[in-house]
Design goal:
Strand content: 15-25%
Structural class: alpha+beta
Largest sheet: 4 strands, antiparallel
Order of helices and strands: HEEHHEEEEEEHH
Strand order of the largest sheet: 1-2-5-8
Shape: globular
Helix content: 40-55%
Number of strands: 8
Radius of gyration: 19 Å
């Protein structure tokens, strides 16, 4: 269990350092090109990974927060039991990755509204998400100066891979004159770790198919 704890701690530390640095050094919607097709580009995501929403508006935010709590809870119990039974690392390692990523994004939604003075908020009057200008500052004392309540913060995303960003020539039938953008989603380290965990489960599914899940 010690190795699992160290792995989760390392992933969370990396994830939170990246997010806090971007949040306190970049303006929302700004970024810097690292090399061709790779940007550090700051956006805030009130939804799930890659900008997917469970439901629109404030309701979706609440549902998502509840979903994250349940996911972290059950993954933690599952991982503890499987480790105690000395299950295969082909199951333990991917599950550790998925749990770590889930915790990382959960911390954003749970604490970032209290930790930072500015952030994307939902205006119930206009039923729209309202962004902000400038660079956020850390609210060290977690007082009432945060931008949102507990469990109402937004997840910080920063990895952007605009592999193709162009306009299709007008002479091309059906699609001509339209904008073609691939890969558009912006994601964070936790999203990547979750994705890696899922891919590993898929790759090694034959290795773990005889493992009793429950």
């Amino acid at each position: 269990m010690k190795k699992i704890f160290l792995s989760i701690s390392s992933i969370l530390l990396t994830d939170q350092i990246l997010k806090i640095y971007v949040k306190t050094h970049f303006e929302l919607g700004s970024g810097v090109s690292i090399f061709p097709f790779f940007w550090i580009f700051f956006v805030e995501n009130p939804g799930m990974a890659y900008g997917i929403y469970l439901a629109p508006g404030y309701l979706g935010k609440i549902i998502l927060s509840i979903f994250r709590i349940i996911l972290v809870f059950f993954l933690s119990i599952f991982l503890y039991k499987k480790n105690k039974k000395k299950s295969s690392n082909y199951l333990i390692i991917p599950t550790t990755f998925i749990l770590s990523g889930a915790i990382g994004n959960f911390l954003d939604s749970a604490l970032y509204g209290l930790l930072f003075d500015t952030g994307t908020i939902y205006d119930r009057g206009s039923h729209k998400w309202i962004s902000y200008a400038g660079i956020s500052k850390i609210n060290l004392y977690l007082s009432n100066n945060g931008y949102a309540n507990f469990m109402e913060g937004c997840v910080v995303d920063m990895f952007y891979f605009p592999i193709i960003d162009t306009y299709i020539p007008a002479w091309i039938p059906f699609f001509g004159g339209s904008h073609f953008h691939f890969f558009k989603p912006v994601f964070n380290f936790s999203d990547f770790i979750i994705f890696l965990g899922v891919i590993l489960l898929f790759i090694f599914k034959n290795k773990i198919k005889h493992v009793k899940i429950f």
